[in-house]
Amino acid sequence: MHRSSEVKHLASDFNTRACECFGQPPVQPFESHCPVLTDRTVRVQLKVLKVKDGSVFFIRVKPDRTGVVTDGVKHSMNPFCEIAVEEAVKLKEKKLVKEVVAVSCGPQQVQETIRTALAMGADRGIHVEVSGKDYETLGPLQVSKIFAALAKKEQADLIILGKQAIDDDCNQTGQMTAALLDWPQGTFASEVTLEADKLKVVREIDGGLETIKINLPAVVTADLRLNTPRYATLPNIMKAKKKKITNVKPADLGVDVSSRLEVLKVDEPPQRQSGVKVETVHDLVEKLKEAGRI
Amino acid sequence: MHALCIHSWFIQLAELPELHQMMRQTCRDYAQKELAPIAAQLDKDHRFPAKQVQELGAMGVMAVEVPESLGGAGMDYLAYCLAVEELSRGCASTGVIVSVNNSLYLGPILKFGTEEQKKQWITPFTTGEKVGCFALSEPGNGSDAGAASTLAQREGDEWVLNGTKAWITNCWDASATVVFATTDKSLKHKGISAFLVPMPHPGLSLGKKEDKLGIRASSTANIILEDCRIPLGNMLGERGMGFKIAMQTLDSGRLGIAAQALGIAQAALDCAADYAHKRTAFGAPIGKLQAIQFKLADMALATESARLLTWRAAMLRDAKKPFTKEAAMAKLAASEAATFVSHQAIQVLGGMGYVTDMPAERHYRDARITEIYEGTSEIQRLVIANNILKEYQQ
Questions:
Q1: Do the beta carbons of residue B170 and residue B97 sit within 8 Å?
Q2: Mutation target vs B (from A56, A75, A108, A234; most B CBs, 10 A cutoff)
Q3: Residue A150: its H or E element
Q4: What are the residue ranges in chain B where pLDDT is below 50?
Q5: B264, B267, B273, B278 alpha-carbon torsion, rounded to 10°
Q6: Which residue numbers delimit the Acyl-CoA dehydrogenase/oxidase N-terminal domain (chain B) (predicted)?
Q7: Which residue would you say has higher pLDDT here, A73 or B327?
Q8: pLDDT tens digits, one per residue of B90-104
Q9: Beta-carbon separation of B60 and A233 below 8 A
């Protein structure tokens, strides 16, 4: 989804690298991070985001132009977060990780998303309650602050998040979380291997694949080819019901969720103009030259 | 206490419990992603979806009601009906494969089998690696199940089976079957017993695969028994109990078929409603025309009514209350809804409904069998009438 918008920076106290990323206003995804379990083995913190379902076609801009209509729109777990959950559960199945904790920030509805993560194999969930206006303005900065606070509280060794949310495409939370914790990061991971207390991460970059080795504790963001998420099995769905979800408020973690950004306006993309049909390749070249394209 | 029960039933009818909703969503996701895209090709090739059956086994869907100790999912019958409906919405053949394994094969063994039999005949059939089938009908009798002519004679420490069974779903892909045979024809239905036979097995052979109108990805054929010898321990339940086992099994099985019919109806409705949005005629999408709107309303009404009947019968069964009449009503309503809805769906699609480019024609072909197997609509009416007359008996 592309929306044109103007973003005005209000006070900001984070590094310029993060500022530069703002091209679009963050539309409210339900983000959750799953904390990772650590002890001498790795504690995986997963971020589980609830976003507008990728198959929803009719997204409309709100009349007041501050965002898109979310009421009544089907939401589901962010696909990259599904991949993150799957990776964490796989690590646990290999006995490299002791506990997988799924975290989501948002209103009551995100509990459903946390339960889905539990049904996939996460051990417990944390629901960080953010609702109303706070939720509408919740963005990567606040979420990464929440995650950093939770990671310290839960003593997580590994935070795995989806690389970006498919509704706002920010691609910032993982990086910001690592910066706030001063932890190494392996982003756009297409392969993750735990070697003693180091993490080998293969990253998908524009030039190809880059392999890095980072120390734990670390932050990893999951890319598309990291794995294929499993379907929850019926017995696991039943077990998920008994697994615990604790509620916390951002204030409990000492995090201020007020936004440093103000969305000025959200517009729909311009109506697609009809094209021009030409008879021959020669005509096509002429037309393109006329339009100054070549 | 009583008021509380009714209240919680109504809530359940209005909105499913969270567990069931999650389960339904999982099955729906699987059906949308893994079954719907291949259903047309499976139908064309008459191909058993072995890979998908294994995946469903891993999810626990091939043995929903079987307790976890035996390898199943340990869920209730309502959950099972939801699963079959969602899977059938993607592919009706896969729906019946799942239903036959759960209700007709695992069902009677779970209810009437000894602990030994359960370990041997249930656990390997929960994973999707193996499926089972149910051999009751014969070339000479379908509805007239009491007139079974397949013979079982005791010879020393073996039973010897002779006869032919017809219309057996799954048989070409099955690794075991529950066979009904009579030890004494003069006792009529009281002479029938149930037997467990592994497949393949000496003395058991399969007839040619039937070339069916619909549900073509599931195999249907005769099972021919010629001096088929099985150990005495392979009798299921007591001698002479066979008819009772069959009838009770079918009572539950028909809810599975009701669920399958609901899935087909829903898929046909999805197809028609989507088309009504997109197809324009007389200057607007045809969904604006009252003729189409009335059809869609009737289709949705028929499906939703049958769904509520199905859920209610499943809930009665889960509450261990009598559910025979309600199950017959559910199967009758759902199967007639499936044929009605798929018929109307073709009408909404017009010419496009008649060609294989759209799934409407496959739904029409798949729906038809639901009024026939596991108790024809006529038999369902007899079951309902008998129950009503009993209620009103002086």
A1: yes
A2: A234
A3: helix A140-154
A4: 1
A5: -130
A6: 18-129
A7: B327
A8: 999 999 999 999 999
A9: yes
